[in-house]
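Review the following:
>
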Amino acid sequence: MPRSTRRMVASLLPTSLSVFVDTVVRVLAHTQIRKTGLSQKKAHLMEMQVNGGSIPDRVEFAHGLFNMPVKVSSVFEQDECVDVIAVTKAHGFEGVTHRWGTKKLQRKTHKGLRKVACIGASFEGHVLGSPCWSKYISSLSFLPFQTYH
């Protein structure tokens, strides 16, 4: 480990329990993507929680894992249940052809092909929310309430 990293880690290690506010110790780990033979260059990041023992023991255990390869078999067992939380990517503002799978209009259409030809009656004064609309596709679209606009 480089000297600057050792100094930084030493400054993070607590001298007494009064320093701790949280009781959770987590470790950021990444894969060694070059050893997999994939064309991808960016490593996968994973945050793992360290459980068991007192808080200084957890910090010391996590400190001992710096720059050390950790095998999956040392972290997980066969047929072990694991809680997984992931963040999905948003798709941004998407049109009706992508969102609803509508057919594209014919080539001679005025002002765009990837639209819906008819979205409702013109005499009602407003259009219901049920027809196909283009909209922002967020990663939060699974929530029961709308958190984005």
